[in-house]
Each structure stands twice: as C-alpha cells, then as structure tokens.
Amino acid sequence: MKTFFQVPTITIHDPSLRIVGVIDNNKPNSIHFFDDKWERDLATGASVFSFSVYKKFTANNELQQNPTEVLRKRNFVSFNYKDETFLFTIYKIKETRTMLELECRNLNLELINEEALPFKSDQPLTFKQYAEKMDLLNFTKLSIGINEVESYTRTLEFTSSETKLARLLALLSKFNAEHEFKTFLNSDGTLKEFKINVYKEYDGDNYGVGKKQKNIILLGERHLTDITRTVDYDGLFTMLVPTSSQSVSDEKEKADEHGQTVTTVKNPDGSTTRTTVWKNSDGSQSKTVINTKVTKNADGSTTTVKRTEKANGSIIETTTIRTSKGNANSTTKVLKPPTSNKDTGEKELIDLGSMPDWEVKNSDGEIEFYKRGASLYAPIAAKLYPSTFTTATQSDQWIRKDISYDAKTSEELEQMAFKDLKLHAYPAITYEIEGWTDLDIGDRVPIQDDEFSPILIIEARVTKQELCFTRPENSRTTYDNFKSLSNNLSVDIQVRLAEMVEEAKPYTIKISTDNGTVFKNNEGESLVKATLFKGEKEVFSDVSWRFALDGNVTVGMQYLVKAKNIKDTAVLTVSAYIGNNEVATTEITLTNVNDGAKGDKGAKGDKGDKGDRGSDGIAGKDGVGLKSTVVTYGLSTSETTQPTSWTAQVPTLTKGNYLWTKTVWTYTDNTSETGYQKTYIAKDGNDGNDGIAGKDGVGIKSTTITYASSTSGTTKPTSGWSSTIPSVPAGNYLWTKTVWTYTDNTSETGYSVAKMGETGAKGDKGETGERGPQGIQGLQGPKGDQGIQGPKGTDGKTQYTHIAYADNATGGGFSQTDQTKAYIGMYMDFTATDSNDPTKYKWSKWHGDKGATGAQGIQGPKGADGRTPYLHIAYAN
Q: From CA 287, how far away is CA 251, in angstroms rounded?
C-alpha cells in the first residue's frame, strides 16, 4: 500500500507540560496508538485528535509505566506534522478492561468553558482592543501573532454572555476576518507561545487562512476512494434589499407628520449634499447634513468620503475604499463629539438609499453585481436561475430577499449585504472526498469534475478535514466551492492553468561577488550583488534588498564585505523584498584565514597511520528573516523622554510637543530591534500682516541618486556620475549626488562624500627563516563557483514497477496482495495502474518445497567464544 505520510510520534506532557512519555508506532516495544482521527475546522479554528491505546504493559515499554498513569485528564499530548507542533488537552477519556479511548482538543479549557460577559463600546476600537477589554487574551496564554485587520476599527455591542471561544468567533466575524491557532513548544516540551493569527477574510483580493495550491485534483484518481458532490439551490436569491433596525435618529428622513423636508444638491466638485430638516415633538427643529463624494482611482477602485453633521452637534467622517471586485473597507473618524444629549427616542431603519451606486464586473467584462438605490442585484445569476420557469415568461426575473442586519451605519450595512449576496447568488457546491490529499485547512485548489457536462473546473477550498495516520485511506476532506474557473475546456482554461503554474513558481536569489568570499589575514574586500528570479525570469520591478551580517542590518542594492570585520567565518543573510513583503532569502558563508605564528623547528616525526574519517559536525543554527514590522506613535513634551503610551494611529498633535514614531522589527528567531524618529510640532508665532498670496505649492516629482569617484573630498567631480557605486581606490573619495525634481519642474541637488581608507606603509623585510618540515594536509577549500549550466535534458517519464503473486508459473491463482503464494511476478512500464493480466508478468518461484530431513553431520571443531549479532533497521525519506 502507498504511504502518504509518516505516522508521528505522540509526546505525553504533565499539567506543567513537562515530558513524561512517548507513544511511538515505529518502535516495536513502545505502546502503539490506533483508531486515530484528527479533525480540523476552518470556521472555528478548532482541532480535535482522538485515538486509542491498549493498557498492556511490557518490560521494554518506552513509558516505563502503565499508560493509564500518564494518559489522564489535565495532561497534554503533542505531535509534529509538516514541521509544525500541535498541542492538545486530554479532554475526555473512555476506559475499558483492555484499552483507553481519548479525545483531545487543541484549545485550553478557559477559552472553551469560561464565559465572556456582555460588552458595549461607545467608540470605535480595534480587534486587539476588543480582545483585551473582554479578557479574551489576558488569562489564556493567548496572544495575537499576524494581524491583517490591525488598522480596522468597529463600534460593537455584545448583548449576552457566551463562552470566550464563541465571543472570539463573533468578534472575528464582525471584523470580516479568519483565524488559525499556532502552538510553539520549548525543547523540554513546555509551552513557549500560543498565538492566534488573524487574516482578512477570503474575498478574491485577500487569501485568508491557507495557501493557494497549483496541482489540479482530478475526481476519479485511484487514491480517492469515494466522492460525494452536493449541489444545493436552497436559499438562493439574486436581489437583496437590506435594512437595519439600529436606532440612528439622524440617518433617515422623518415621517411626514413630523414636518420633515429633504433637499439633495449636486455640488460643483461632483459631491452631493443631502439635508434633512424635521420638527421634534416639542416643536423645535432638527437638521442632519450628509455630504458624499466619490472618487475613481487609477487601479479601478473607488474612494467614498461621507461627512455627516448630526442634530446632536457631532460630525462624523467615513471613508470607504471599494476595489474593482466590489470588496470594501471603511474607516470612521469622529471629527467633533456631540454637543447635546438630545434624543428623539425613535427607532428608525438605515438603508442604502444615501450610498452611491456602483457595479462589479467579472473577468469577462460582464456586470456580475451592482447597486441601484436601496437594493443590490446579481444580473448574471438572475439569468441562470430565474424566479419563474424561464426569463422569457415573466417581467420580474429577480428572486428577492429582504434582510434586516445589526448595522449602525449605511457603510457597514452595505458590506454585510454584499457579502451575503455573493454567497447566495449561485447554488452552493460542496465536495466531500474520502482518501488522502496532501492539503491543509484553508488551502485553495483547482478541482476538475468530468461528470459535469461540459466538464467543470472550479477552485475549491478545504473547510474541514479528517486525517487518519494509521489508516490513511480513512481520511476525508471537505471542499466548499467558491469560484468557478470555467464551465468548458476552452482556451481560457488553458490560460488560467498556465497562470496558476506561473504564480506557483518560487522566487530564488542568485549571488555574485567581485572578489570571492574567502579572505586572508583580515585583508581585502568584496562587493556582493544579488539578482532575484521568479522561475527562470529575472525580476526588476519594485525589488529591494536587505543584508544582515552578525546582527547588523543594511538596506541597499549591493553590499561591501570587508575582511577586517570577519573573524574566522560569518554568515551573510540576503533577503529580497517586493514592496514590503519578503519573497526570498539566502545565505553565503564568508571566511577569513590568518597565517599562524612561526614556530621553532621540530624534529621530523615518524609517518603516522591514516586516521579514521571524522564524524559530521553539529548542524548550524537556523538563519533568521524578518517576521513582522510594527509601527506605533506617541506624544511627548521632550525630545529625549519617550512617550508613556503608544498607539497604532497617529494621535491628535499638540503644538510644542514632539511626535515620536517607534518601529519594531521582529525576526523569525523571535529577537527584535527598535528604532525611533522624533518630529517637533511647532507652536504658533505672533500674528503677522497678511502676506502676498504665495505661488502654488510643489511636491517632489522624482529623486535621482548617482555616484562618482574623486581624488578630492572638497571639490565635487565634474564627470563620471553613474547609478551604480564605482570601485574607489584606497585614499580616494566616494561622492553621492541626490537630485530632487519638483512638480513645478525646478530642482535641488545635494551631495555627500566618504573617504576610502588608505593602504598602510610597508614594513621592513624580515630575515629569511629556516625551512620547516612539511605540514599536515590543509582543510578542504571553499566550494567553487557554480559550473556552466548543461544542455536541457529531454522530458522525463515516470517508470513504475508492478508486482503480483500466483500459485504456478503461468499465473494461476493470480493475486496482487497474497504474499504466501509460491510464485512472484514482475513487469515495468510507464503506467501507474497495476494490470490484472497474468501474461504481462514474468513469473519466478520464490517459495521452494520443503525438503527431506538430512542425515546427522560430522561434528565440527570447537568454535571460539560466541558474540551475539544484532540487526539494526532505520528508515528515511
């Protein structure tokens, strides 16, 4: 049987997470586990691991004690899978006379069982602030790792008590986020970190949890034992009219009996102003003014700025950025707090009538979704799934749905409604595949289904998974369809698949130097240059480089290695960035060799025997890369005294104070570096007379940096400027020229200069020493440069060996599994499937008939003292 993954070793921990035993199916004398099932769920982030063990005890048992003594409640188990550690709490134990059945969960008991109380915020807060204020992180050893919604804010209310896990899931939903839990253990088994990574929810622009896989799953592959496809039309609708029952008295027009009037004016700058005036019950008048401006951006997205002046005196500004695919993100600022506590006490509906109309096109340029007035529509879905028999038999083709949401603003209502429409405009297609697939929770993979007519290729996502280590054929994976790539085998499919293959190609770095990587006596230097490739294509656009040597980090396009800075060996880590994202990293080893001091002449020794080969050295420690960058801000009255508090948003500036900017770089080895920048906020001066109107302001249009070498450090070079750093002789000067060109076509030029160190005076010639004896053979030299690439080989084909068993040399009693039969047959071809045709196999007898007992042999000479031979077995990939 084909093995799809290695059965892991289970480590058992006590309540303090100290290791107290192991369960290893790869060792015959260890306790083994069976009937295992590992369940993972994308929606909850939960992970449940169940398994059974026998209660037998042997003298060679690795645990050295009965399993019931260590496999008990409050203890933990862990294992490694795909280079990641998974830790579980033993949550439930079922015991019989012969075995234990255990259910283990990946979350601590406080998160599962402890309740979170009702909570309400009157101001916008971030995800982290809500988690801290509701004690979701404070007492569970849980902290936030990756946080893609760090800049988002929401004004939320949770009206009932619920478990901390349920509250955490509800909070993630409010921030349109997905999550995963990660566990990190120390070498002794104790807990190092328990983190939650928060990602923007998958929507076509953001990927969420998991990875995008390039290999297509063909339904019908032989290791997939059974496939269930469900197509569900229940709940489908193509028109959505959303409303909200939140009490927002200033957003909607008042009833006629209140004497309301609504005036909408289009302004010269393209914005619209909507003014609502109404009478209150005490006879006074109130007014709300909403100004909305929509700007189309070059990338196809739109920016909508909505400024609302409410009757209570407050002013709120909401900025919504909507991508070309319709996904939107809103941020809200309170420009002015309320000046009165006036409340009409009326419950009113928020709808989409005051929001600008928009449309979203699919990859073929067809309008797939649009907003008109207070409703959202899905026109393509309406044609495919009309509300009656056909679109030709009726004038109203829409399947309408009215939904009330718990939204406080029109922007929030629109985002919630559009998410629902995308989810329900098309039938839900779900695949449940039995058998092993090498995927993880959240992964996205193309699936080709030949049973559809025409053939259907969709991109599906792993939402649930059941893995069985001891019997991989019992594994099961559930995929939810969220994107149809094509409904026929057209050129579009081939183009799309080619794009997917191209996207999956990794980034690689190639390094070159002008003077090698080995130095002698701390003398010399070498210029290191790096080139970034994606597949075989060189990448130029938006590439920057980061060089790290012995903890010193340098950002630039090349790096100058100086031998005087290297003691014995050093590792230079080179990382490539596209924008702010690290896409590849590599390392080169730099070596400095010093001449030893001259020793006294020694007597020539006898020739020694050849020594044994030395063992491998200890593996070097892992290199480090940039894990995250966090920027925060704070105000201080001093340039030297740090602020007492830091925030992710720039605080309100106070004249005469200093704005501090703190940047924390965290690396993959969990070390960090911190940098600060300070800016003085000037106080107002005395009022002066009105000056003459100034000319239009200018901005920087471009910045150009060039370099040149010169023998002078005071007179700038008149020629020789280039965009690459030249080689500068010792004692000469490297000049750097920066030219800023402004939008009014004026420019400024700045210079900086650095001197290269001069070569020291040559020392007196020493006396010639006596010739010493020949030394021992030196260490192996450094690895040479990569050789010239050989010619491209022909396309390879995978060869398969097929084995079967039979009762005789003609294939009688043919079997592919019964190894007790007397004959074994083999053949080789390029087809993965085993043939059932006995004539294809070459048969050989491998079990002989039992012979008659022979006569007693002559006694041999007495043997030497015996030594017990041992058979050693190991396994490797």
A: 10
